[in-house]
Amino acid sequence: MTALLSVRDMSRSFGGVAAVQSVDLDVDAGTIRAVIGPNGAGKTTLLDLVTGFTKPDSGSVEFKGDQLVGLSPRELPSRGLMRTFQSARLVPSLTVRENVMLGAYRFTRARFGSDAFRLARSRREEKELTVRADELIDFLDMRHFADTLAPALPAGAQRLVEVARGLAGAPDLLLLDEPAAGLDDSETRELADVLRAVRTGGISMVLIEHNMALVLAVSDRITVMDAGRVIAEGVPKDVRGDPAVRKAYLGVDQ
Ligand SMILES: Nc1ncnc2c1ncn2[C@@H]1O[C@H](COP(=O)(O)OP(=O)(O)OP(=O)(O)O)[C@@H](O)[C@H]1O
């Protein structure tokens, strides 16, 4: 089976720091791939390399058979790739619904055509986007927040809005950078249910996460990084028992 996403021999240094060194990463269609590792392991840099926010020193990224290296981040949503960020990047002057709608703008075509035509189309598209955003907001059980300005939300809820915005782009692959940061235990369990439902809906995911309960609950395969390198890869049961992982990630020597 060909992987949906295939990262090969990816490297990037910043000055003397080898943030990512010869990393391979595969994500099969319909699966969740977790990337874990201690602070500074290179997880976010890897995501930045895949999504064009950082240029690699060397390496390739194949997604649905196309090379992504050299593309700008803006080009990726229309190819079916969406991401979230480590700290929520919601637009503070917009409501939850409007923030979610932003994720779906790749579906709008109103910028083409004559003015009158454009206006009519833009109204219709705005309505479609609203319906789409509300479906996702309902899916995340956040209808009571739909008209709230994003900064007024609790931190945990803001993370979920980021996830909803990513889903609004109807991606084939959603890259999630620490979606459980700031969530309490019950919110994290809800997030696990959401991610499983998203996978059932056919969307694959890369999950960068420190919360091991979430990682073990939802991941099909786990990649473990330390100091820029992959030190282990496999199904959760095997990775959890790997001595190198326990030493590097959990700080235990047995
Ligand atoms: N733009 C940059 N300039 C200089 N150094 C950088 C830059 N981005 C990342 N680094 C360094 O690269 C290394 C990997 O950082 P990265 O943020 O990818 O790790 P991480 O695994 O995501 O960590 P965390 O779990 O804390 O988010 C770190 O040593 C970091 O300081």
From TrEMBL:
Segments passing through the bilayer: none
Q: Which GO terms describe its cellular component?
A: plasma membrane
Q: Under the GO molecular function aspect, what terms does this record hold?
A: ATP binding; ATP hydrolysis activity
One Pfam family it belongs to: BCA_ABC_TP_C
Kindly indicate whether the keyword ATP-binding belongs to this entry.
yes
Q: Which UniProt keywords apply?
A: ATP-binding, Nucleotide-binding, Transport
SMART domains attached to this UniProt entry = AAA
- Looking at the keywords, is Secreted present? no
Task: Give all residue intervals belonging to the ABC transporter domain.
Answer: 5-252
Could you tell me which PROSITE patterns the record lists for this protein?
A: ABC_TRANSPORTER_2
Q: What is this protein called?
A: ABC transporter domain-containing protein
